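The protein record minuted underneath.
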Amino acid sequence: MAVITNYRMKRLLEAAEPISEARLPLDLRECAEGEWGRSSSGVLTPDGPPPSWTARLAGADPEELMKAELDVNDIRVDDEDLTGDPHTYLSKVVARGFLFAGSCLLRARNLPEAGDLRAVMSTGITEDFLIHGTTVKFFLRRGGLPKCFHDVEGYKIEGLAPISIDDLPVLGFET
């Protein structure tokens, strides 16, 4: 089984340092080790309770719930310590992003919705990649992927990888 990525992320993954060698800065490590939170509408967040406004989404359609999760779970991968060497930046930040996403998914494996939980990792690849950086977004797949991820190859300026708990062994995680 292979991780689904667009062509750009596939190239980044091929050149990335091993995920096992990546290290998380304190803020990402605390988020990855925190408790998953849940609102009354079912919105999940990896680092404690979701914002109170998500409770108003109870009864919303699946696409609206996924959009809300993507909004509240848009986490920038801290990369300040990696920007000193632009030649190694992408290989290190991609490994860090996958380590963060995988650690959060692994911690969620006992949630009832674990099989539907997804992390989408995105890394900018244009000449201003140091500004764009890497983000990880989490959401529950509710009947499918959000419309914005139906065509991962449509993302021309970033590497993109929607991953699930099932992808973790391929990325080197023990599940």
Notes: Residues 7-167 form one domain. Strands lie at 37-38, 44-45, 74-76, 117-124, 134-140, 158-164.
